[in-house]
């Protein structure tokens, strides 16, 4: 008899439970146990995000001007790089079009 069939044992939980958060109630999982695991998981995610936010504030306060200069230099350099990539793509397309035209005119 499964936990769902016995009302007195409907939601037994233990440290060794094999009830992953993703498992549905139809698969014999205890909804309380699933909810507990989701809350625990969410807590640790939120704790990490909070720590990241705190560090971001402190890093910006300490190194903000230097990081801004680095970001400006990165945007400038990547802008030049991106423009060169677009120029190369345009040159390649033009070259291919010219070769295509030459090939087509040779077959006429």
- The gross shape turns out to be flat
Count of helical regions: 1
**What share of residues are in beta strands?**
under 5%
Could you list the spans in which at least 5 consecutive residues all have pLDDT below 50? Answer: 1-9
What's the total number of strands?
A: 0
Mean pLDDT across every amino acid position: 84
Number of domains: 1
Structural class call reads: mainly alpha
Provide the helix percentage.
over 70%
- Main pleated-sheet profile: none
Based on CA atoms alone, the radius of gyration comes out at: 30 Å
The SSE order reads: H
Q: What is the first-to-last residue Cα distance?
A: 82 Å
Quick summary:
The chain has 108 residues and is mainly α.
Q: What topology does this entry show?
A:
Blueprint: H1 31-106
Structure description:
The protein is mostly helical and 108 residues long. It has one helix spanning 31-106. The chain contains one helix and no strands. The termini are far apart. The model is unreliable at 1-9 (pLDDT under 50).
Question: Keyphrases for this structure?
Answer:
108 residues, 1 helix
